[in-house]
Amino acid sequence: MVGLDDVRAAEARLAGIAHRTQVLTSRTLDRRVGASILLKAEVFQRSGSFKFRGAYNKLASLTPAQRDAGVLAFSSGNHAQAVALAASIFRTGATVVMPSDAPEGKAAATRAYGAAVITYDRYTEDREEIGRRLAEKRNLTLVPPFDDPQVIAGQGTAGLELVQDAGPLDVLLAPVSGGGLIAGCAVAVKGLGSGTRVIGVEPETADDYRQSLLAGSRITIPVPRTVADALQVAQPGELTFAHNQALLHSIVTVSDAELIGAMRFCHERLKLVVEPGGVAGLAALLAGAVQLAPAERVGVILSGGNVDPERFCRLLHSISS
Amino acid sequence: MVGLDDVRAAEARLAGIAHRTQVLTSRTLDRRVGASILLKAEVFQRSGSFKFRGAYNKLASLTPAQRDAGVLAFSSGNHAQAVALAASIFRTGATVVMPSDAPEGKAAATRAYGAAVITYDRYTEDREEIGRRLAEKRNLTLVPPFDDPQVIAGQGTAGLELVQDAGPLDVLLAPVSGGGLIAGCAVAVKGLGSGTRVIGVEPETADDYRQSLLAGSRITIPVPRTVADALQVAQPGELTFAHNQALLHSIVTVSDAELIGAMRFCHERLKLVVEPGGVAGLAALLAGAVQLAPAERVGVILSGGNVDPERFCRLLHSISS
Asked: Distance (Å, rounded) from C-alpha A135 to C-alpha A142?
């Protein structure tokens, strides 16, 4: 199991490399929610999301020989860009396997960080098979998106910094996809000895983690449809589930309309660009989905900002018309 | 004339009231421009723009009797919201005179801060006359948008903080409308004894300040058409001109398309919402309108973020199609 020491070790590796992102506050938000909200702005993180923390920590934990041989990732999203950037910092190669119908912008962003992008047909080819073949042939090390101790420890530094910079929290909210971010953050805040209630947020159509925690074992759902492209995982990770089962208070869910409404709030009030998955914690607060005592101190991870203007505009238009 | 001491006095009045906004950096931006860019994010200022600094400093400088009688402003934009918020903090009344065809969002935002909004027909009524009558009848004090020593000193705190937090600058870029922001910032950075080149940025259709500095006297142009609604002033202020004539290095101009392109850059790369007028300094850098030596340290005031999502989307669409 990952412990606070692992998160602190990740913190040391990331010092001066990852951005120590700001904690933002808003009087308007506090009034509206009736609590003191502390927003960890991971939209300002390198590569545009918290994913850089885990990816870099994983690469930093490899032996030099492993690292120099290059790394491999499966992703069409934030993890792809994070691995590509981390590899470029270590001056090693990254190969990212992406479905051929992934948005061109995501492939372009990943290539811009220097990674080789290999596409596959998601309907006829098996990406695991492709990855295994590549990894063997080229001696590449896989960087998993969430189910890995070093990745979990890296993501936990977001929670650690939030408490260091903002003080103890009564509640911590973070989006849940594979469960790595919230597992790492829970390890950090619980490890610091506080009684913080760590609450995960999922799209209501992508509630595999909520169902799994209720059932007491990992449940697989059909690939969910949601505007939160970063949260479309169908099953909890094995290692993340073990942590989250022990450490989470609960999971709440939000609708797509609530996610988009929270993106609008970020634009109008906070002047921040936050992607649909990144805004889940704030959406839960604005929707009243989290039970709070008056004046509680609530940390929220705004986990990523990778939504291009065209998609941002389409999403906002989709619920206003 | 306003001096560094006046800016320092404003700094003391604003302490704990205005936000000390972050200075943001971007490796992508530095690489693209070939310099070290330090972005003062006044989009995070209370009321959504730097205007709060000057408005609050002006109200704080009034006698209690003046202040308690209430204040008056002419504005349909950021100054209106700033005066309304400053008055609410002092628990006094603000009356804002706005054209009846001002965007409903701006009137609503001003009312939301507790101000009384009085509208006039800009084609048949004289706003000065309406204001004078109101001010006399109700004993209100006018808070000018730029041509006032306390307003200039207040705006200067943005430049002062930038140098305090980021260190000495080779160049400072700020948008120019009535000229209060750049005058105050020039007083601050020049007063600190540095050789900073202070460069103003105007829309190319709204270059009254550029023309006036070249001519050596204040020139009035027809009310300019530009997407930068915050920069549509037709003539330099009298007091701001006296300062800017003495302190500015030059004025450069940018096109509407360059302003909108810079807004896109802020969204995609910085994850920030910046309004068309607020992004002028960055637009000038991205357009190559500012001559820089390699690795110079360039401060940029991102002066406001009050652009609602609908207008943001319309503007971006207007140049992509």
From this structure: 7
d(CA B189, CA B9): 15
pLDDT higher than 90, residue A134: no
Distance CA A287, CA A277 (A): 15
List the single residue in B48, B264, B310 with the smallest CB-CB distance to A271.
Answer: B48
pLDDT at B279: 98
Q: Is B303 tagged catalytic? A: yes
Q: A193 falls in which pLDDT band (50, 70, 90)?
A: confident
Give ipTM to 2 decimals: 0.94
Q: For B270-298, how does the pLDDT look when each residue is reduced to its tens digit (9 = 90+)? A: 999 999 999 999 999 999 999 999 999 99
CA gap A265, B106 in Å, rounded = 16
pLDDT band (50, 70, 90) for residue B135: confident
* A321, pLDDT greater than 70: no
pTM above 0.80, yes or no: yes
Average pLDDT of the segment spanning B199-203: 98
Distance from CA of B272 to the nearest CA of A (A): 5
Strand ranges inside chain B, DSSP E: 23-24, 36-41, 71-74, 94-99, 116-120, 141-142, 171-175, 197-203, 250-254, 297-302
Residues B137, B142, B146: CA angle, nearest 5 degrees: 160
Cα dist from A245 to B176, B178, B247, B277, whole Å: 56, 59, 63, 50
Quote the CA–CA distance of A11 and A158 in Å, as a whole number: 9
Is residue B321 scored above 70 in pLDDT?
no
Residue A102, pLDDT score: 78
For residues A39 and A300, is the Cβ–Cβ distance under 8 A? yes
Confidence check: pLDDT of A104 > 80: no
> Is B280 in contact with B263 (CB distance < 8 Å)?
no
Identify which of B78, B43, B23 has the alpha carbon closest to the alpha carbon of residue B272: B43
Q: Cα dihedral angle (B252, B256, B260, B263), rounded to 10 degrees?
A: 30
- Summarize the confidence of residues B72-97 as an average pLDDT: 94
CA separation, residue B131 to residues A232, B86, B126, B148, B155 (Å):
57, 19, 9, 17, 24
Look over chain A and give the mean of its residue pLDDT values, rounded to a whole number.
94
- The pLDDT tens digits of the residues spanning B41-81 come to 999 999 999 999 999 999 999 999 999 999 999 887 899 99
Cβ neighbourhood burial of A108 (10 Å; 0-12, 13-18, 19+): exposed
Q: Concatenate the DSSP letters of all residues of B225-254 into one string.
A: P-S-GGG--SS--HHHHHHHHHH--EEEEE
Question: By CB neighbour count within 10 A (0-12 exposed, 13-18 middle, 19+ buried), where does A32 fall?
Answer: middle
Q: A24: nearest CA in chain B?
A: B44
d(CA A256, CA B223): 43
Q: Which of B62, B109, B67, B65 is nearest to B90 (CA)?
A: B67
Give B240's Cβ-side CA count (13 Å radius).
30
Chain A residues interacting with chain B (CB cutoff of 8 angstroms): 22, 24, 27, 43-44, 46, 48, 264, 267-268, 271-274, 305, 308-310, 312-313, 316-317, 320
Please say if B51 is a catalytic residue: yes
* Three-class DSSP category at B211: helix
| Catalytic option among A36, A47, A49, A51 | A51
Beta bridge mates, B172:
B198, B299
Q: What local confidence, expressed as pLDDT, does residue A232 receive?
A: 87
Q: How far is A243 from B30, CA to CA, in rounded Å?
A: 40
